[in-house]
Amino acid sequence: MTRSVLLRRGLAALAGAVIVLCSASPAFASAPWSVPQIVPGGYLARWDTPMGGALHAFPGLLAFTPGATGYAVLGDDRGGRGATTLDMTTGSFRPLRSSRFLGVDPALMAVYGRDGVMLAGGANGPGDRRSPLNAQLPLGVAVTRGTVAGAFARQLLARGVVTYFRGNVRSIEPATVTALAANAAGDAAAVVDVPVRGHISVVGFRPRLFIRHHGQPAFRRVADLGRQTVGRHPAALALNSAGDVLVAWDDRDSVRARVVSAAGRVGAEQRLGPGGSTWMGAARMVASMDANRRMLVAWLAQRIGGLGSAGGPGIAAYAYAPAHQRFDRARVLQDNLPRGMDRGIGPPGVQAALLRDGAVVVWTGYTAGRFAVRAVDVRSGRPSAPLDLSPAGTDAALRSMAVGPRGGLVAAWTSSGHPGTNPTPPPGLYVRARAPAMTTWGPLETIATMAVGDLVPANVPLAADPDTGRTVMLWSDPVTTAPGPPGVLTTHSAVRTSPDAR
Q1: What pTM does this model have?
Q2: What 3-state class would DSSP assign to 299?
Q3: What CATH number is associated with residue 395?
Q4: On the CB side of 141, how many CA atoms lie within 13 Å of its CA?
Q5: Is residue 139 in a domain?
Q6: Residue 127 lies in a domain
Q7: Mind listing the pLDDT tens digit for each residue in 36-64?
Q8: How does pLDDT run across 399-417, given as a tens digit for each residue?
């Protein structure tokens, strides 16, 4: 398998990947989706040069507020960051409004209230005053809180570490935000991986949990999670309507979880099952918790090395907890995921949600000699037989999933083909949807197709309107349209009729 195949799977979205962009026009299908619209002035990915070079993907953030406002944070085609809102009457996003977000480079987003927005990411701020790089590098982690109209306020949560040897910079290790979540009332939580300083260098990282209850002026540090490890930790968060917090993390050996009650009681740590994933800029883990404190944590555990080399344990798994009870033992949905060069599965890897009548887990798995997007339903903690959502003939990678207010589902993935082949369906961006209280998924829906060898979109934000259940998607055109640097890839949007049948 060639390096270009690996890039098409989406691991190329990480900065530093180098390929040559082929020029071909993608084809779009509409029904039940609206005609694709261009997002004015925003991007999800760009090239350093118009004919190839370093590919940089910005983690496009997309959500509907509880007040049903579609809000997106994208890269600004002038090199910065910006935000935009969705006009549901036209199905198109308004022109991007540039913003520095008070010095925060947004990596994660949570929404709350009618139009509240929280953004978390790297931020400049007070750190090691001896560092000549302190003013340029976002060593710390901060959260900004505001509204879809703007007016953000910032709080620094943690600082990075700069170590020295004989007066010269030895190493720079920033703090990293690995999870952020909020409920409609405005209760919120964040997990930050903080570097631990030794005598002469950083000796590891420790995840810390921060919580802010609605009405409080700031986040406060609640607990250190687990043990210190050499590398950063994947993590996931969920809040229910009461303000209870579920936090899960991978300590590079096992997946563990704790619950913090709305009253502030920190529950005991519970081991859920085998882990081992490294932090890849986004977690391959997801958590969900409802008002009755049913809980679900799903994860994909796979060590990733250079050039996408995959190691153990190579599993997709989940753990379920009935209402107000501890988690049952983890159930492995798939083991023996392929190992070796070009076998790494990029984030998100897995998506999951609690539904009124159970739960659903969707993940990037492997079957019949190909990567495939697979799904199971969970009833009383037990999984159904796996269903392949993606068709045979192409390698597929899960990109996102949205859940409507009544439990309708939309799952999106990209597929790729090997050079010299003519796969059916062709490489592209695809979706399948499911109505509430159903176990049968609808037919394949084509969003965009492209020729073998073209860049397949790696960043595909997807969100559902909490009022109507209509779903909006963002994706990048695989063809660069800018005449020169920074080589912005055109970003499109489309709105789908609601699988909730509303």
Answers
A1: 0.90
A2: strand
A3: 2.120.10
A4: 27
A5: no
A6: no
A7: 999 998 888 876 655 555 667 777 999 99
A8: 999 999 999 999 999 998 7
